[in-house]
Design goal:
Keywords: ATP-binding, Nucleotide-binding
Mean pLDDT: 84
Pfam family, one: AAA_33
Structural class: alpha/beta
Protein name: ATP-binding protein
Organism: Streptomyces filamentosus
Radius of gyration: 17 Å
Largest sheet: 7 strands, mixed
Helix content: 40-55%
InterPro entries: P-loop_NTPase (IPR027417)
Distance between the termini: 17 Å
Amino acid sequence: MRIQHTGVFAGDAAIPAQRARARTRPHGRVVRDLRDRGGRGPRVLVFAAGDVVVVSGLPGSGKSTLLRRAAAGRGIDSQDARERWEARMPRLLPYALYRPLVRIAHYAGLYRALRSGAGVVVHDCGTQSWVRGWLARAAARRGRALHLVLLDVTPDTARAGQRERGRGVSAYAFARHRRAVGRLVAAVEAGRPPRGCASATLLDRDAADALRRIGFREAA
């Protein structure tokens, strides 16, 4: 996997590798750091046809918002499955009672999307590395690659995002997410994307807000 397989674009113009801070690591893996640009980063990320993109970060960091705005029908978000089930259930029924059904529905939809061979963008909570492993194997079986897009925001920003959406996580769960996402960010900053990832792109909130589309090239 080389730099030309994963493009970073702003509008219709390619950003030179040095401006995007793109670095090719051993085995051809690419790391791009698009943070600290004050919103002047690329507007479009383009990947190869049929590749799989995982968007990860803290709860409230803006993953679902980014998918809905930029994935253009290619996004697979567990939040969508939860909202569909919430609409069916009595309002007083605790989510914990039907959470297993939501997860089954989410992973069934993700499995169907992977089987289709189309490029997909997947919401990842960051704490379940087995999901990235499954996605990497699924992509490799069809000769495609897995890419990580990682939102790096402060805990205070993430908590504010939870308040804005009116749905938070427990202190215990948030601490677990902080540890998992912190390890991911540190590994990517050190040039070590997770096993199975052909590339990793770091975004802060400004860079994520500037991103208008996550897309895929036409199949040859």
